[in-house]
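EI: anyone free to look at a 71-residue chain?
SC: sure, send it
EI:
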Amino acid sequence: LGLCAATRLSFPLGAVAGALQGAAGLSAPVSITFLTSMHLERGQFISTISVFFVSLGLVQIPMLMNYGYLN
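SC: here you go
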């Protein structure tokens, strides 16, 4: 997947991954498939996926606490 195509697809696929994470905690299939298709170097892949999952956690954990699902 080239940089131009990845740029165009990043928002829609990010939205799908976010919706799946919020609904079922299941964003990995979309995000890992997307990043794998970009053929990133190992270090870039690890850094990117780490930032992605930390970002999701930073949003999901406070929301779960707010709704009383996580004490």
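EI: Residues 35 and 48 are 8 Å apart (CA to CA).
SC: 👍
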